[in-house]
Amino acid sequence: MIRFGFSKTDITPRVGVELSGFGPYWHRQSIAVRDRLSAKAMALTNGKRTVVLLSLDLLLISREITDKTRKLVADKYSEPCDVIIHCTHTHSGPAVYGIEGWGEIDVPYCELLPNRLAEACLEAIQNMKEATVSHAEVPCVGIGFNREYDKVEQPIETVIRDDWRPAKPELTETTCHVLKFESDGKMIGFISHFGCHPVVCCRQTRYIHGDYCGVATNILESENPGAVGLFLQGALGDVDSCFVHKPEKESLEALDVIAARYVKAVREGLKQAKPVTIDKISSAASRVNFSRKNLDVETLKKLLAEKENLFAQKGASDEDRNVRMSGVYVTNLRKLIARMEKDGFKNDTAELNALHMGPIAILTTPFEVFQAIKNDVRKQSKFKNTWVLSVTNECKGYAPDDTTAKRGGYAAEQVPMMIGEPPYADIHGELVKALIELEKKL
User: Fold this and answer.
1) Residues 139, 175 contacting (CB under 8 angstroms)
2) pLDDT for 134-154, tens place per residue?
3) Using one digit for the tens of pLDDT, what is the confidence trace for 406-427?
4) Angle 224-230-234 from CA coordinates, rounded to 5°
5) Which sequence spans correspond to the domains of the chain?
6) What distance in Å separates the CA atoms of residue 277 and residue 187, rounded to the nearest whole number?
C-alpha cells in the first residue's frame, strides 16, 4: 500500500534582505513581510523506495543547496530516497541562486536553508500513512497572458474585471490540476499544478511574499486546517501574470485579486476531485548534456570590449540601466572567456526527474519551460495526465520554443549571458526528447 506524508516549515527571511528576480543592480531591499514563505514537502513510499517532493516559495534553487539537502536527508534516513526540490518562482523572495545584479545572496539565509529543507523532508517521511487520493482538472482563467505572442501588459482597471481574458488564451494554461489526499476522513494535503510567472509584484515592490500562487496556497491551507498545500509550477517560461511591472500600491491590490482567482479554481478542484487508484509509484532521474551554440573566444572578447567601452563614455552614469546591464555582461563575459580559454567550456549536465503515481506523471526540469515545449511533451507522453515542471533542483535558464530561439532576445540569448553560459542550440527538440526518454523508465 502506498503511504503519503506531508510537512511544512517556515523559510521566511529576515526583513531587509534583497529580493530576487529583477535587475540589474536594483537593490530591492525588503521592507516587510506580506505573507510568510514556506517549504512544503510531500513524501510517498511503496515500502521499498521513498520519494520526497519539496515546493519552495523561492525564485530559484542552487545545485549546492540541493546537494546539501539530499546529503542531510540521507544521513538521517537510511532507506533509498529521492529528494526533488522545486521552486514556485516567486519574485518577492530572497536570492538563493546567484545571478549577477539580480539580487544579492544572503549568506546566513543560504547556510540555514538546507537544514530547514531536510527537516521538512524528514518530518514528511515520519508522517507517511495510507491515504485516499483524488484528482480533478478544472478551469483556471484570468491569471496570465503569453508575453511572447500576446498583447502587452494592461492597466489594473482592465485586469481586475472578472471577465478579463488574454487575447490568446490558447497560448497559456486554461486549467489547473488538483490532487487531494485524505486520511481518517480528513484532508492531510493537496497539490495544485499550473503554469504562470508569479510576477504580480515586480521591481517596484519591496514586500516579502509568494506572489499569487503562494498567497493563494496559504489561503487554501487556512480553509483546510491541518492540510499542507504544494504548488507545482508548470510551463511558465513565456507566460506572465495578467498584472505585471506596475507600482507597488497597485501591485499589492492586484495580488489579492489574482490570488483569489487561483483560490477559486483550486477550491473547485478540491470539491470536484474524484478518487483515483494509486497502487504503485515509480521514479527516475537523468542528467543530460544539452547542446550549446558555438561561441569563439575572439567574438566574446569583442563583445566584452564593446560593453567595457560603455563605462568609458563621457557622462556615463550608473543611473543608466544600460550601464548597469553592461556591468552584468562584463562580469559574466570575463568568467566565460576564462572558462573557455581553460577548457573550451565543458558544458554542465542538467538534472531531469520523473515521478509516476496513478494517473499522474510529473516530469521536472531546471528550466523556465515555454508552453510549446510542454505541449509537445504532453502529445508524446504515454500517460493521461503529464505535468511538466519548471525551476527544479537547480537553475539552467530558459527553455524557449523554436520560434523564440530563432528570434533571439531575452530568454534565448540575454539570460544565458547573464549566467555566463552560451545559448542553447536546440533546447526545444532536445528537452522534449530527453523527457520522453526519461518517462520510458517509469
Assistant:
1) yes
2) 999 999 999 999 999 997 778
3) 999 999 999 998 888 999 999 9
4) 135
5) 3-276, 297-343
6) 17
